[in-house]
Amino acid sequence: MILRRLQEIIGTEHEVFAENKNWVSRQLLLKEDQMGFSLHDTIIFAKTETPIWSKNHVEALYCVEGEGEIEVIESGNIYKLTPGTLYALNLHEEHYLRASKDMRIICVFNPPLSSPEVHLPNGSYQADPDARQFIVNRKKDPMTFAYLNLKGHPRGNYMLDRLIQAGLEPALVIEECSDLATAGRQELEKQLQKIAAETPLPRSLPEILAGRNVRCVETANHNDAQSEELLTALCPDLIVLGDTRIIRNNNILRIPELGIVNVHPGYLPTVRGNNPYLWSIVHDLPQGVTVHFIDEGVDSGPIIARQRLYLQPRATYPQLLAAINRLCGELLLEALCFLKAGGVQSLAQGNFENPGKKVFRLCPPEIKSAAIQKLESGEYRFEEV
Fold first, then answer.
1. DSSP 148
2. 287-293 and 303-309 as β-strands: parallel, antiparallel, unpaired?
3. How far apart are CA 332 and CA 290, in angstroms?
4. What pLDDT score was predicted for residue 357?
5. What's the pTM value of the predicted model, to 2 decimals?
6. Which mean pLDDT values do the consecutive 10-residue runs of the chain (385 residues) have?
7. Contact indicator for 170, 204 with CB cutoff of 8 Å
8. Could you tell me where the beta strands, DSSP code E, fall in 254-318?
9. Residue 64 backbone phi and psi in degrees, to 5
10. Can you tell me whether residue 327 is helix, strand or coil?
11. Collapsed DSSP state (helix, strand, coil) of residue 109
12. What is the DSSP letter of 45?
């Protein structure tokens, strides 16, 4: 149990005054208290105006004394603050906080703040790299996104088809025509053909886009100058990766305001890299799908959503691939629906169990054959992990 009294905090290092002398915060709970939030008893001094942007946090504030107002910068709306008034910055609104009289506000932050409590020049607090991050779509509707996929890749086509059926149409589709694309398409099609009678093959891109005004362009590499030029011209809010190569072009990484979303056919952070479903079998690791933002690493960006995939005993390799395709489509749709509605939360991979340190490479043919044999013989101990 934690028991603290305000008078015990006043005059200590946990009574923090703003550099501009606009406010003083008495820190009742902080990150190190491990409560999942921080709690502050704050005085906003009379006749002050403070620009604030809770860019990296959500914040709830409850006025208990004094008078003031909050002006939301984007809309220009002004709201009077008096004792008994609560406001919550659930969309991270930039605003001005003004006090006509000394105003006492009880503030709750998630993720929790640490000491010292310093506003950055843009009015926000420093993001905690280990905490849940908030990605807010202020535009909401419409949300412009580009979709990148290896030409004809069945998994990427299935995910795009799922999005479009739900009313989420990309402004641009860029297909990469390369040896990588051909090899990936042929391998997956070969396996899915084996169960086509029970599980229909994903539709082709022309079938998916028939009758729709969606621009589709082919490039040689999703990292090349042509792809960069196309994406720069569109300047989408979001880029979505179907099944494609790692995006290493830093200029592309910086284009979308909301970031770049990848769908990894494996359970992060445990299984990173190529063919995660095969390496999971080899090492008796869980199967699953993860939707995450990308960073400069390999499958190492903050996780938006992930889900375990449980198989029937002696499931076949084609059945595993088809199940992964379906789950990829469902999790991606869920993430984009949240983004369209207002935003998503993501969490750094270091916060999860078994953070993967190894990045698996393309599975060699002999290991692939052994993994498939292990799966289909019932030796894969997926239920024990």
1. E
2. antiparallel
3. 9
4. 65
5. 0.73
6. 94 92 95 89 96 86 97 93 94 91 95 78 66 57 90 97 96 96 94 93 96 96 97 96 94 94 95 94 94 92 92 90 96 91 79 73 94 93 56
7. no
8. 259-264, 272-273, 287-293, 303-309
9. -115, -20
10. helix
11. strand
12. P
Cα–Cα distance for residue pair 62/57, rounded to 1 Å: 16
pLDDT on residue 350: 79
202-227 burial code (b ≥16 CB/10 A, e <16): beebeebbeeeebeeeebebbbeeeb
Token pair recorded at residue 82: 């008096």
β-pairing, 23-29 with 15-17? antiparallel
Number of other CB atoms surrounding residue 138 within 10 Å: 14
Q: Is residue 296 packed enough to be buried (19+ CB in 10 Å), middle (13-18) or exposed (0-12)?
A: exposed
CA–CA distance from 171 to each of 142, 212, 238, 381 (Å)? Answer: 11, 11, 10, 43
Read off the tokens for 101. Answer: 């009289």
| Residue 242 DSSP symbol | S
* Cα-to-chain-centroid distance, residue 266: 16
* pLDDT value for 384: 43
